[in-house]
Amino acid sequence: xxxxxxxxxxxxxxxxxxxxxxxxxxxxxxxxxxxxxxxxxxxxxxxxxxxxxxxxxxxxxxxxxxxxxxxxxxxxxxxxxxxxxxxxxxxxxxxxxxxxxxxxxxxxxxxxxxxxxxxxxxxxxxxxxxxx
Length: 132
Hints:
- By secondary structure, this protein is mainly α.
- It has helices at about 1-30, 35-55, 60-65, 70-105, 110-130.
- The chain has two domains: about 1-70, no CATH class; about 70-130.
- The chain has five helices and no strands.
């Protein structure tokens, strides 16, 4: 069991991203019918992941991007970057929602994304308030 855990600990990122690449490629193949585009979708996701996996032992930045911060400083950098990305995502979703509403376009998808971000934030505050 320990060897399986160690193997998955090392390769989990590649396995998860390969599955994501397969799903993206299959979706592109189903919509566009282009095997070339499906392969490119898969190659981008898996290629990025392989590069991170190969560099994570040599680069602290790649280690953080691969989900393995090397120390508390890099953990803090990761948390701040994650918070900034969430904030930018929330503002983009809300801004796009306002533009879609003002121009009479369909805003339902944007409302779902903005609502999910807001619910995730509120849920996170409640969850971590109890857990930490």
